[in-house]
Amino acid sequence: MKRPNIVFIMADDHAAHAMSCYGSVINETPNIDRIANEGMLLENCFCVNSICSPSRAAILTGKHGHLNGVKTLDVPFDGRQQTFPKMLQSAGYQTAIVGKWHLGEGGNSSPTGFDYWNVLPGQGAYNDPKMYKNGEEVRYEGYTTEIITDLCLDWLNDRDPEKPFMLLCHHKAPHRPWIPSEKHKSLYEDIDIPLPQTFNDDYSNRSRAAEEARMRIERDFSYGDLKCEPPAGERRWARVVPPTDLTEFSLKPIESDEPVTFTSHQEVKEWMYQRYIKDYLRCVASIDDSVGEILDFLDTEGLAEDTIIIYTSDQGFFLGDHGWYDKRFMYEESLRMPFVVRYPREIKAGTRHEAMAVNLDFAETFLDYAGLDIPEDMQGASLRPVFRGETPADWRTSMYYRYWMHLGDHYVSAHYGMRTDRYKLIHYYGEPLGTPGALDESKEPEWELFDLEKDPAEMNNVYHDPEYADLVKELTDELYRLKEEALDFD
Ligand code: CA
Q1: If you measure from the C-alpha of residue 127 to the centroid of ligand 1, how many angstroms do you get, rounded to a whole number?
Q2: How far is the CA of 333 from the centre of ligand 1 (A)?
Q3: Of 68, 261, 396, 460, which has the maximum CB count within 10 A?
Q4: How far is the CA of 12 from the centre of ligand 1 (A)?
Q5: Would 405 be classed as within a structural domain?
Q6: Strands 116-120 and 94-100
Q7: Which tens digits make up the pLDDT trace of 199-220?
Q8: Residue 206 is assigned to a structural domain of this protein
């Protein structure tokens, strides 16, 4: 059989609940939906560590962070190790990565295994980006999402049509600080985006970790995030902290001459949410356009049948859920990765699959399709049977998660946990363990258990409920079995 081409499109921080094929009530993503409609949508795809660089390293290697070296944002990737792009390249694939890399620059951290790489340094800029093209600095003018798309299409046009290709198209958007394109900057201008169900979460019945996290809509945005002018002498990235008495408080949007005043803290919170979510969704709209352009290209070139095209994101994101932005927690909105795939030769159009997938599976899936042996030390499983609509008898029924960056950036306590189809057990062990990027401060350990059937929004920790005592024991045993199986001994 002819080896399929692979187009892997990954956004940064695009939550599944901001995609219409996943039932979004806040936006439409017609082009991403097209992949789902013409292929398959995974209902339960999760990341093993909900943060940018670690998810990217897990995808490249098929291994957890404690084995690939990238447990937090503060560790550069060592590109001398085994990755699926290197293996596909050795097997005769033409390989490219365009866009966000975010695994370190220079030395052993530059991309390896790619004939062509053209990547943003660090987080990259939303406009007029500097990029590194096979190591050489290049400046581009324009909106980064569109530039990444054009560079991908240029590479596809210039490829050798006789050989299979693998293209990783990695968008910077819709990562913070959510800067939309000129084209979409007026989208949603005259409407209010609905508030999520858990917007006014007060963090009762849960861990202290949830209450202590610093990613709250009403308290942890900067002036830059909200596109408001900072007061004289204040930095653009300073936090906006509304005072108890709001009479003297106002915010001045950069596009307006008039400051906005408020009569209640709830009003401030809802206003900030609208500022945030609209820009986030405008960034998503550009990504969706990009997906449409790539799909059109595959059609025009007659490549649609022979190409596996995937759209995903490095993790999920809180879209005002629990009163938050950002990710890191093992809660659903952050843990869940969107994942849609089209490959007409093997995937039935318009299907959905509930099998539990994790980002460790992607590497093995690509190797499987390329007809290569899967190395024993990869820790996922090929999704190829799932894509065919099957569920192998030995398919996983639980997954292991670990967030290492204890109290770094948004003050989220380090934790590990496991999820089954119905339950989620989380242990905040409360120690930095010498991890780079972790804050050297201890927290009292705590546990959470959620019954996702009764409490899908994860508002009620039942860990201490006597009715769940037997289950706690069973799930705890399974958690430590998974931890050991993952070769995580810390
Ligand atoms: Ca990310």
Answers
A1: 18
A2: 13
A3: 68
A4: 4
A5: yes
A6: parallel
A7: 999 999 999 999 999 999 999 9
A8: no
